[in-house]
Amino acid sequence: MTCGWPTNPAFKTRIALQALHKVGCLLPVVSATADKQSRRIVRLTWALLVFTAMLFLFTIFLYKDTHTLAKHEEAARPHNAELP
């Protein structure tokens, strides 16, 4: 399958075609590298999402634990009305 000549007749030079060939050979390598980096970014994004969810759940746990501890301390402390 031939791609045909470009519309610019000055582009038919051997040097220009060699340069175009080198760029064409480089594109699959660059594409594979970009695909690998994209997959890595997606994995890191999912890891960040999971980490954020775990921190959120841990924060909820700490809030409930602190709230419960404060209730127990408040119940153990005598109120001012109960003092003689």
Brief digest:
The chain contains 1 helix and no strands. By secondary structure, the chain is an all-alpha fold.
What does this structure look like?
By secondary structure, this protein is mostly helical. It has one domain. 75% of the residues lie in helices and 0% in strands. It has one helix and no strands. The protein has one helix spanning 14-76. The protein is rod-shaped. The mean pLDDT is 83.
Top keywords for this entry?
mainly alpha; 84 residues; 1 helix
Uncertain residue ranges: none
Number of DSSP helical runs = 1
Which class do the helix and strand fractions yield?
A: mainly alpha
SSE string, helix = H, strand = E?
A: H
The overall number of domains is: 1
The end-to-end distance, rounded to whole angstroms, is 102 Å
Question: Helix fraction?
Answer: over 70%
- Please give the radius of gyration in angstroms: 34 Å
Shape descriptor reads: rod-shaped
Q: How many distinct beta strands? A: 0
Strand content: under 5%
Task: Output mean pLDDT.
Answer: 83
Largest sheet: none
Helices and strands, with pairings:
Layout: H1 14-76
